[in-house]
Automatic annotation (TrEMBL):
Keywords: Membrane, Transmembrane, Transmembrane helix. Its main location: membrane. Gene3D superfamilies: 2.30.30.60. Residues 186-253 form the Mechanosensitive ion channel MscS domain. Belongs to the MscS (TC 1.A.23) family. Pfam families: MS_channel_2nd, MS_channel_3rd. The chain crosses the membrane at residues 20-40, 72-92, 98-122, 143-162, 168-194. This is Mechanosensitive ion channel protein MscS. GO terms for molecular function: mechanosensitive monoatomic ion channel activity. It is found in: Endomembrane system. It comes from Acinetobacter equi.
Length: 400
């Protein structure tokens, strides 16, 4: 028997069983999809990865770890099933339509995920640019992802309802108020992200303090909805983006840019130890190099003032006090200190007396912003200033 006759017999036999013809054709379509998926994933994708791995550029690991090519490869078997299902004989039109709608929805989803991977790739490449620390774009990319997600959902819903996307948008117009209520936090985050970026309020790496949320540390990540802060105790605080617009916070970036850090601390003097300086104390303090010039100038100034008074007007005569001399000593000590900035403000002042003594406030700036160095400089300064107080006949107030 000829081969053609054998084939005709097989066809006649298959025609007697429509379900067998349908099952055979369906198996061929599924097998073709599996083969296409294998070729796309294991030959094309891996081949492209090998080509990229042989190239020499700084962002190669980032490209290799990205799933953009794999997401696009998922579309190939879906297209074969979508177009091949119409060739299957004796298949119910409803089943055929349902399979086409499912594959079309899968293609829309795969395209959306591929765009997400492309945006992630762009963000990773942008983060290698030094400008990214001042102008992060992660929030904007998340906004684009949100829009793409909404469009993808509408297209998938439109596919199953067999309606145009614009028709669905018109139908959702009546639900605008409800949608705004549902996406209230997202809308607030979008506005906040735009304001933060436009006014350069916060950058990645900034030290910020949010008293209302008990957050104090460095900004390590900025996204559309949240800003992540690593506190100094190595814990993490996730702050809603709009909180940086609605709540007060401190950004210490100005201190870092200036290269100085402020010292603002008071020494509480026992007010019973404050008095006029005796000649013996004045003579002893003349040996202090920092006070030698001050005592000479101040002594000449007071002598000139007192000469203008009557000899019997001793009560109104001006005299040196131990607190005033100590205040002058502290100011001169700070000005000649090697770790105190000479350009920034440096002063010593009295504050309002309280029941806990008379506060003598030191206001100066160190020439470093490193935390440990700053604390060491501040501690060394106050160690000296407290230890030398008895030389001026002064005492620290300490509650019994």
């Amino acid at each position: 028997m000829k081969l053609s006759d054998r084939v005709d017999e097989i066809k006649l036999w298959i025609d007697q069983y429509p379900w067998l013809d349908m099952l055979t054709s369906l198996s061929i379509v599924i097998l073709a999809a599996i083969v296409a998926n294998f070729i796309a994933k294991h030959i094309v994708v891996k081949g492209l990865h090998k080509i990229i791995s042989k190239l020499s550029f700084s962002d190669k690991p980032m490209f290799l770890s990205n799933k953009l090519i794999s997401r696009i490869a998922n579309i190939v078997p879906a297209l074969i099933i979508m177009h091949g299902i119409v060739t299957v004989p004796f298949l119910s039109p409803n089943v055929e339509s349902f399979v086409q709608m499912c594959t079309q929805a899968f293609i829309f989803l795969s395209l959306a995920l591929a765009i997400f991977e492309l945006l992630n790739l762009f963000n990773s490449a942008y983060q290698h640019n030094p400008v990214s620390k001042n102008k992060p774009i992660k929030g904007y990319l998340q906004l684009i992802k949100l829009i793409i997600s909404i469009v993808c959902v509408l297209m998938i819903v439109g596919t199953f309802l067999q309606r145009d996307v614009f028709t669905l948008l018109a139908s959702f117009g009546a639900m605008t108020a409800i949608l705004m209520l549902v996406f209230q936090n997202t809308l607030l985050s979008i506005v906040a992200s735009i304001q933060i970026s436009s006014y350069d309020m916060v950058r990645i790496g900034d030290w910020v303090t949010l008293p209302s949320l008990n957050a104090d540390g460095d900004v390590i990540d900025m996204s559309l909805h949240t800003i992540t802060i690593q506190n100094f105790d190595k814990t993490y605080t996730t702050v809603p983006t709009n909180k940086l617009v609605t709540d007060a916070f401190i950004n210490w970036r100005g201190m870092s840019l200036a290269g100085v850090r402020r010292i603002k601390r008071s020494i509480h003097i026992d007010q019973f130890s404050i008095g006029f300086m005796s000649p013996e104390m004045s003579e002893r303090l003349q040996n202090f190099l920092l006070l030698n010039k001050y005592l000479e100038q101040k002594g000449a100034e007071l002598e000139k003032f007192n000469e203008s008074l009557s000899n019997h007007d001793e009560l109104n005569q001006r005299r040196l006090t131990n607190l005033g001399t100590y205040r002058a000593y502290v100011e001169m000590y700070l000005k000649q200190h090697p770790n105190i900035s000479k350009e920034a403000t440096c002063m010593v002042r009295q504050l309002q007396p309280t029941s806990e003594g008379l506060p003598l406030e030191i206001y100066a700036f160190t020439n470093t912003t490193v935390w440990k160095d700053y604390e060491n400089i501040q501690s060394d300064i106050f160690d000296h200033l407290i230890a030398i107080l008895p030389e001026f006949g002064l005492k620290i107030y300490q509650e019994p």
